[in-house]
Amino acid sequence: MQGGIAENYGLFGAGNSAPSNSSPWRLESDTEIRIVGDSVTLSGPVAGPGALLMTNSSGTLHLRGTNLYAGGTLVTRGRLSVIGASVLPLGTGDVRVRGDTGGQLGVQEAVRVTNAVAIRGYGWAESFGQLSALRFSSTGTVSGPVTLEGDSRIVAFASGDMGEVSGPISGAYNLQINWATNYSGTAGGTPGTGTITLSGDNAARRFRQSPGAQQSAAVRQPCATHRDVAGRETPDRQRSGSAH
């Protein structure tokens, strides 16, 4: 594939099955991959100087291989999920996820994401509500730096799901852990019941939480230091929704 737009109009795997394409892909320029109402897996390597874009999808793209594309990744609408213990699942460039416009990055099955990741918003609308811009399933780790470009949400949805963020988190915005809202942004939906571990430099901080949403599940981080992501002291009234 050399640039342009790759589109899936639901013809692949009718009935929500998940076809797999093991062929290698090369992105010679910034390339839009559009998944419409379905789930498609690319298990072959993706390489080239271009970026991978998902800006107009209503389905899920799974990346299972080791990928070396260098132009970065942008997800503004649809879900991009990285699966399996592959090296460089998202290429070598930066990753930006706009959950405020319906994008989501899924990390599962022992994947380690080493890229710099920027997130914003609460993710795409799914049957359980708006869960997150960054969603962990089974196990996964984000070890690259994470930048909050707006109020953001991270979730490990099911009981037994475990996600770890070991890269430093920055950005003077609210971060919600395992919360959910309904599609209008008010309290509702189904909050996550898995475990999010904030390790490394994040373990000494408490993260300011936005009001008006539900929270449940364990967040493994100390409660002795009360600071937001900018390192500022956080008043008690801003910590009423935080997990211990």
What does this structure look like?
The protein is an all-beta fold and 244 residues long. It has one domain. Helices cover 0% and strands 39% of the residues. The chain has no helices and 26 strands. It has a 15-stranded parallel sheet that branches. Strands 13-18-20-24-26 form a five-stranded parallel sheet, with no helix packed on it. Strands 3-6 form a two-stranded parallel ribbon. Strand 15 and strand 16 form a beta hairpin. It starts with a strand and ends in a 24-residue tail after the last strand. The relative contact order is 0.10. The N terminus and C terminus are likely disordered.
Labels describing this entry:
about 240 residues; mainly beta; 15-stranded parallel β-sheet; five-stranded parallel β-sheet; about 0% helix
How much strand content do the residues show?
Answer: 35-45%
Topology as H/E string? EEEEEEEEEEEEEEEEEEEEEEEEEE
Radius of gyration: 17 Å
Number of domains: 1
Number of strands: 26
Task: Break the fold down into its secondary structure elements and pairings.
Blueprint: E1 5-8, E2 20-21, E3 25-26, E4 31-35, E5 39-42, E6 46-47, E7 52-54, E8 60-63, E9 73-75, E10 78-83, E11 95-98, E12 103-108, E13 111-113, E14 117-121, E15 125-126, E16 129-130, E17 134-137, E18 139-142, E19 146-156, E20 162-165, E21 169-170, E22 175-177, E23 179-180, E24 195-198, E25 214-215, E26 219-220
Parallel strand pairs: 1-4, 2-5, 3-6, 4-7, 5-8, 7-9, 8-10, 9-11, 10-12, 11-14, 12-17, 13-18, 14-19, 17-19, 18-20, 19-21, 19-22, 20-24, 24-26
Antiparallel strand pairs: 15-16, 23-25
